[in-house]
Write a structure and sequence with these properties.
Length: 155
């Protein structure tokens, strides 16, 4: 069966079984490999993409559930929030191995897009599902605060 999905502003017709995880379609069918497979169980956050601007776990989201909706992957984020997050990530050299980082950036971008003054509790709530085995959490928190501050100032 074919499913029409919009990814990064482009329409695709995916001829896959209805229960195919969106992550598989993104990586295997569309070759957008910035989104990573970690656990496959909605436990690690490495597969995070945006559905209409909100972070979702693409490993447990079937393609059939996102027909006609706007999906954004790490390759397609262009908002001011996302740009400021990525700039802060680079400035603070957040990544170590990097494996979890596209998911972290997607979650962090969605957070500051709706909250430009996140408290530690806000950051914990938004980011607790994104695991980093390299324990870059301190730099992630600081980068989120720096980017949010710049967003608030209208940089
Ligand atoms: S791979 Fe999706 S949450 Fe871990
Ligand atoms: S940077 Fe290595 S898992 Fe997060």
């Amino acid at each position: 069966m074919a499913f029409s999905v919009n990814i990064n502003g482009q329409d695709y017709l995916l001829d896959v079984p209805a229960d195919t995880p969106l992550l598989w379609a993104i990586r295997d069918n569309l070759k957008l490999t910035g989104t990573k497979f970690g656990c496959g169980l909605a436990q690690c956050g490495s597969c995070t993409v945006h559905l209409a601007g909100q972070p979702i776990r693409s490993c447990v989201t079937p393609v059939s559930a996102v027909v006609g909706q706007q999906i954004t992957t790490i390759e397609g984020i262009e908002s001011q929030a996302a740009t400021l997050i990525q700039t802060a990530w680079e400035k603070l050299e957040v990544p170590q191995c990097g494996y979890c980082q596209s998911g972290q950036v997607m979650a962090a971008s969605a957070l500051i897009a709706t909250n430009n003054s996140p408290t530690d509790a806000d950051i914990d709530a938004a980011m607790s599902g994104n695991i980093c085995r390299c324990a870059t959490y301190v730099r992630i928190r600081q980068a989120i605060k720096d980017a949010a501050s710049e967003l608030k100032e209208g940089v």
